Write the C-alpha cells for this entry.
Amino acid sequence: MFQCRRSLLREPDSLGHGSRNRPLQCWLALVFFASSISAQSHAQQWDACNPSSEVKAALDLLPESAPDQTKWGFHQKELEAIQALRRQYPNDIFVERRYIEAVQDRTERPRVIEEYKAKRMANSQNPLMAYLYGLVLIGPESSESIQLLNGALEKDPKFAWPHLSLAQIFSSRKFRDTGKANAHRRSFLDLCPTSFEGYKELSRADDKQETISIYAARLRALLQEREDIDSIAGYPTLWTLEFKATSPSEHERLRERTARDVLRIRALNLRQKREWYDALEEGYRLTNDQKAVDWVKNNREVHVPDPWYPAFFATLHRATNPLRLSVRLFLPNSSSVTSRENATGRGISTKTNYEIPGLGPAPRNGSRGGGVIRYYSLRTHIHCADTARLV
C-alpha cells in the first residue's frame, strides 16, 4: 500500500513503460482497501454487545412519560424521537432494536414489518437486515423469524443478537425447545459477557444449577467493578441467579451477601433514579426487611413517582362518600389482577364511563387500551393503557 502511495506521487515522466498501469492498479487497490474497512466497520457495529457511548447517551435521553400525557400521546412523542435517532445513526443495531420495541403490539407494526421486509430484500446478504426482519416478525410469524435468525448466524457466526432472540422463541409455549433455548442463551452470554440482557434472560430460564452458577459469578464480577445506574439495575438479576444456583440450605448465607450488596447500593444515594429504588426494594425483600421495603416504596413515590399512578388513584378518591370497590385490572396479556381500594361514588351512577386524566380515550367495552372506569354497582372494571405499571 505504501509502495502504491509512492508510485502515485511520482512525476509521470519518472514512470517507465512497464509501470504505466501502476497508478490505475494502485487506485483500484485503494478503493478495495476502503471498501474492506467499511465492511469491517459495519460488521463490528452489528457484532457489538453494547451501544457506543454516543448512542447510549442518545437512547438515555429519549422522552419519558408524564402525568399530563395520554398513553398514545407519549407513544407518538417517543416514536418521533426514535425516528430522529434512526436518521442520525442509520442502521445502528441498538437504535433499530429500540424502534422495533416501541412499535410492537401497535397499529404501526404491519407497516414496520413491510419496511424491514423491503430492507431485507434489498440487502439479502446482510446479516443485520436478516436479524432485524426476523426480530420484528417475532410473534405469530415466529416460524419465519427462526429461519431469518438462523440465516443471520450462518452469514456471521459471531453475531450475538440472533442467539438471544432464538433463545426467547424457543422458550415460548408454541416453539418450546429447552435444549435449543439453553444453547442459544449460552452462546449469547459467551459472545457478549458484558451485556446485561443475556443474564436477565438466563434468570427467567430453567437451566442447570452448575451453568447458572458460572454465569452468576461472571455477572457479580462485572457488577462489582461498576457504580453506574445500569449496573445497579442488574443486581436483582444477579440475586435471582444466585438463589437459583444455590440449594435452600445455603440461602441464609446468600441473604447475608445480598445485605452487603444492599448497603453498597444504598450508599450511592441515587435518589432520582427509579432503578436504585427497585434494586433496594428487591434486596430488602430477599433479606426479609419489611420496614426497609416500606421505606423504599414511600421514598420512590416522593422522588420518582409513577406518572400514571397519581391520576389513577386521585380519580378513585375524589368524592367524600367512600365505597369499598373491587378493582379488576386487565393486563395486556389478557390476565387480570384484582385488588381492593377505598374509593368514592359521589355523583357517579352505575354502568357509566369515567375518563381517567392522562390515560387516553375510552376504548370500546371489553377492549384493552385507553383509560376508563366502568362502574358496575360495587364492582369496577378498569381498562387502561398501561395496566402493568398500575399494578
The chain has a mean pLDDT of 76. The first strand starts at residue 322 and ends at 330. The two ends are 64 Å apart (CA to CA). DSSP finds 19 helices and five strands in the chain.
